[in-house]
Amino acid sequence: MAMAMSDSGASRLRRQLESGGFEARLYVKQLSQQSDGDRDLQEHRQRIQALAEETAQNLKRNVYQNYRQFIETAREISYLESEMYQLSHLLTEQKSSLESIPLTLLPAAAAAAAGAAAASGGEEGGGGAGGRDHLRGQAGFFPAPGGASRDSSGPGEEGKQRTLTTLLEKVEGCRHLLETPGQYLVYNGDLVEYEADHMAQLQRVHGFLMNDCLLVATWLPQRRGMYRYNALYPLDGLAVVNVKDNPPMKDMFKLLMFPESRIFQAENAKIKREWLEVLEETKRALSEKRRREQEEAAAPRGPPQVTSKAGNPFEDEEEDEPATPEVEEEKVDLSVEWIQELPEDLDVCIAQRDFEGAVDLLDKLNHYLEDKPSPPPVKELRAKVDERVRQLTEVLVFELSPDRSLRGGPKATRRAVSQLIRLGQCTKACELFLRNRAAAVHTAIRQLRIEGATLLYIHKLCHVFFTSLLETAREFETDFAGTDSGCYSAFVVWARSAMGMFVDAFSKQVFDSKESLSTAAECVKVAKEHCQQLGDIGLDLTFIIHALLVKDIQGALHSYKEIIIEATKHRNSEEMWRRMNLMTPEALGKLKEEMKSCGVRNFEQYTGDDCWVNLSYTVVAFTKQTMGFLEEALKLYFPELHMVLLESLVEIILVAVQHVDYSLRCEQDPERSETTLH
């Protein structure tokens, strides 16, 4: 009875929560008014929690039940989409072929077709095929500007050679590069190249995909339809990465050729998909062709077989020996349940973002097929798995892209980086990791607010930058331990680039804003102290910060030197050579402390009776200003500034010495002194 009441209460509660006019605030208010106390509220809360858990379980069960059907449906849609693209492409080829025939050739073509039909005695099918081949041959090799097409010269060797010859005529500077026997054109089209870092448009290019390489040519604006050779990339070392659309940047894909990469934009999404599909198909075909060539070269060549059984009584014995390795070569058991379900399991892992599980399955398969032959079933399985590996790589690359959230620090990238390394793509993982961290450092610096004193901002800037650099270095050492040492060289190059970013922000705030020399010296001191902390992990970038700051520090020293010289000359013009009378002992004591802080320890010998100082005001002011300049300059000192500092001091002291010398000569020559006074 209690169970039935509980079920009815749960059903009533579910209907109430699922109603269209349900308002949570009103429901809680009514519930509080109707409840007798805290116990009723606790029981009601437990019922709602149980209902939430039941709903979550039902939802999860439904998702798992429909997930495999969803995968199958998505695969069928993909196959259908591919077939539709192929059909559309064939129709486009036929249309372009027909439109390219000059109108004057139509009567001749019709007469030729009629004559061929009459001569063949009614074999219309063969004549029609021949006509189509003729039209296909008449279709031009190059598409209209802005288009893309597959090779339409026919499957024969003569047609392929004719297509390649046309390519050599249209592209300047590539004849010596395309002389490989059996080479032919697969696909070509117009593209726009963009700069990889700032996504700025660089140039218009035309891509020519051969069966073993990709040729990139630039447009010649003065000569329509002609191109100039730009680059040639073998397909063996070429990786294709799909670039996610980020308006207005869309329909792009990236080509990775270690150690460089290039980004191209297609005319529309359809042409971009065609480029990606044709590149993958051509690479797969080239890999399969070379694998067959290696197998044929490695296979032992036996004696010629005798076809007649009657003339060879030992045929049965001879056939038994070569048949044995062939039977053993085919024995690769792929009927294991986990192998049969491997492609679907990989799809599930990728969809659920279980990257570790996906890579574990790939490692398990590679270990299982290690040292085993590659009959057609194994090759077919490999092709399916390679497609999933490509999808997994694209997802991991997106995880490390700067478009993703940069929060979480360097540790947030560890998952994707480790799986890319396990997939054998250490170089790509290193590049993407450093690019992600560069974007994070740039964002952190840009988000700093410039407020308050300059020294306070520099403290914040140094803390943010060097903390990020230190965390990145430690994470890099953790992720790439035991990998190729070239990755560490890439990190050092990245660290220097990041230091340049820091110095730009530092100089803009300290030196461009014309801060005092004392403030600049304190800021540089803070930056050096933070930079020395990197020595804890074996990374010394002090020489880099010195090299990047030397010009700004030289400018600051020169500016402050000119200020001191001008002030000294002004005081010299008013010099009366009279002793200073400070009037009160307090003022005298204050002057003694100031001179002591400047480094003049024996100032007592220059004081006289009462509050007199046996020095003129000009000499005391010059001493304080020069000693202050020297103290601040020594905070900025490093070997590259040695001569600059000495020359500045010499110029400052020389101004004072010249004034003293002039005053002494005037003392000895009263007439000169009177002339000067008048």
UniProtKB/TrEMBL annotation:
Keywords: Cell projection, Cytoplasm, Exocytosis, Protein transport, Transport. Belongs to the EXO84 family. Gene3D superfamilies: Exo84p, C-terminal helical domain (1.20.58.1220), Exo84p, N-terminal helical domain (1.20.58.1210), Pleckstrin-homology domain (PH domain)/Phosphotyrosine-binding domain (PTB) (2.30.29.30). GO terms for molecular function: phosphatidylinositol binding; small GTPase binding. It comes from the Eukaryota. The keyword Transport applies. PANTHER family: EXOCYST COMPLEX COMPONENT 8. It comes from Canis lupus familiaris (Dog). Residues 139-148 have a biased composition (Low complexity). SUPFAM superfamilies: Cullin repeat-like (SSF74788), PH domain-like (SSF50729). Component of the exocyst complex involved in the docking of exocytic vesicles with fusion sites on the plasma membrane. Coiled coil: none annotated. Residues 119-161, 287-330 are annotated as: Disordered. The exocyst complex is composed of EXOC1, EXOC2, EXOC3, EXOC4, EXOC5, EXOC6, EXOC7 and EXOC8. Interacts (via PH domain) with GTP-bound RALA and RALB. Interacts with SH3BP1; required for the localization of both SH3BP1 and the exocyst to the leading edge of migrating cells. GO terms for biological process: endosome organization; exocytosis; extracellular matrix disassembly; Golgi to plasma membrane transport; intracellular protein localization; protein transport. It is found in: Cell projection, Growth cone; Cytoplasm, Perinuclear region. The keyword Transport applies. This is Exocyst complex component 8.
